[in-house]
Amino acid sequence: MSQINKIGVIGAGNMGSGIAQKIAQEGLNVVVVDIKDEYVQSGLGIIEQLLGEGVERKIFTPEQVKDVLSRISGTTDFNAVADADLVIEAVFEDKQVKSDLFKKLDQLCAEKTILATNTSSFFVGEFARLTSRPDRFIGLHYFYHPAKNRLLEVIPHEGTSRETVEKSLLAAKLHGKTSIVVKDAPGFAVNRFFVPFLNEATRMLEEKIANIPTIEQAAKRAFKIGMGPFELMNVTGIPIAVHASTTLGNELGPFYATADILKAQMKKNENWDLAGTVDESKIAAVMDRFYGVCLGVAASLVDEGVASIEDTDRGAKIGLRWVMGPFEIMNKIGVERTFTAVEAITQRSPILAPRSVSSMEATPSSTREAATPRQTP
Ligand SMILES: NC(=O)c1ccc[n+]([C@@H]2O[C@H](COP(=O)([O-])OP(=O)(O)OC[C@H]3O[C@@H](n4cnc5c(N)ncnc54)[C@H](O)[C@@H]3O)[C@@H](O)[C@H]2O)c1
User: Which pLDDT belongs to residue 147?
Assistant: First the structure.
C-alpha cells in the first residue's frame, strides 16, 4: 500500500487550521489552501498562536514549534495540492461551495489523490458522485478542536473502495487520531445522539419540567461531564445547535427537529442564562429524560448499522469526553431503568423505537444480561 506523504487541507478556518496543525505536529507535511491570502494568513496565525500557548504551558519547546511550522505551508494556489496523497476539505458548510470545490479538485488532483470531506451535515456520497473518483472519496469528520480532540469519524460512502478506507485509517493513525468507522448516515454516530441531548435539554425547559440549573446539574450527573448542555451551547454557539438539529430533523423526522424555544433563543441572539437554584427533587426525572433520548438514539443507530456498540461508546468518550459511553451507561444503570426511560421517549415519538432496547424487555428478567443490545445487520 502506498504511503501518505503529503496532505492538503482546503479552508484555513477553525477546523482547517486545526486539522493542519495536528497533521504537522505529528510530523507530516501539509499544505493549507484558502481563497484569499488574508484567510490563509489568519489560519496560519491561529496555528502559531496555539503552538505559542503550548510553549507557555511547556507542551512544546520553541524548537519543536519551529519544526511544526516548517511543515505547514499556506497558499491560495490550488495547484499546490495536485500531487497530495490526501486532500481534506474544510470549507463553509454550504452544499454549492463544497460541490464546486470537489469538481475542481477532481480535475486538478492526481489519480492517486483521495478526496475527503469534513462535512457535518451533508451525505458524503452526494459529493463523491460529483467526481470521477467516488472510490477514492471518503468522509473524515473531525471534532472541535481538531488539534486537541482525538476522535475522527471515518465515513466511507457506498462506493468508497476498501483501499481508500485503509489508506484513510492509516492517515488518521499517522496524525494521532483514534478512528471509528461510521456509515454515511445523518449526524454520523456521535452527533446523532449528542445533538438530541442538547435539543432535549431545551425541550425540558420549554415543557417547564425544570429550570436551567437543574437540567445542567442532571446532565452533569447522568453523563459525568463538566459542562451541561446549556453552558456548552453558550460556548460553542446556539446557531450550531439549531443548524445541526434542523438537519437531523429534516432527515430523520420530528423527534430530532429543533425545539421552538431553542430557535427562539437563537433569534434573541442571547446566551442561555445559567443563574438559579438547583431543584434536587427534579434531578432524577430529568436524568431519565436524558437517558431515554441518548441511550435510545445510540441503540437506534447501532440497530441501523451506523456504528458498532464499541465505536459508539468510544465516540462518546473520546469525542465528547463522557466518562462512559451510552452502552456502558446502560450496563451501569441496568436494564429496567434503561428500558423505562427509552420507552417513555418512544411513546412520545414512535419514530424512535430501537429494537435492541425493546428486545431487552422481551427477555425474561432472570435471564437478562445487563444492557448489551445486539447489533443487527
Ligand atoms: N466548527 C466545528 O465544530 C465543526 C466540527 C466538525 C466539522 N465541521 C465542518 O468543518 C467545515 C469548516 O468549518 P469551520 O468551522 O472551520 O468554518 P470556518 O468558516 O471557520 O472556515 C471555513 C474556511 O473555508 C474557506 N473557504 C470557503 N470557501 C472556500 C473555497 N471554495 N476554497 C477554499 N477555501 C474556502 C473560508 O475562507 C474559511 O476560511 C464545515 O463543513 C463544518 O460543518 C465543523
Answer: 96
Nearest CA to ligand 1 atom 38: 13
In terms of Cβ atoms closer than 10 Å to its own Cβ (0-12, 13-18, 19+), residue 130 is: middle
Q: What is the pLDDT of residue 248?
A: 94
Section 332-354 average pLDDT? 85
Retrieve residue 101's grid coordinates: 470545490
Mutate which of 9, 10, 15, 235 for ligand 1? The one with the most ligand atoms within 8 Å of its CB, which is 15
Pocket of ligand 1, beta carbon within 6 A: 10-16, 33-35, 39, 90-93, 97, 101, 118-120, 141-142, 144
Could you give phi then psi for residue 239, rounded to 5 degrees?
-60, -30
Active site residue 17: no
| Position 339, amino acid | F
Write the CA distances from 141 to 10, 30, 79, 144, 168, integer angstroms: 14, 18, 24, 10, 12
Local structure of residue 258 (DSSP, 8 states): P
238-252 helix and 190-206 helix, angle to the nearest 10 degrees: 110
User: What is the tens place of the pLDDT at every residue in 294-336?
Assistant: 999 999 999 999 999 999 999 999 999 999 999 999 999 999 9
The single-letter DSSP state of residue 276 is: S
153, 200, 216, 231: the catalytic one is: 153
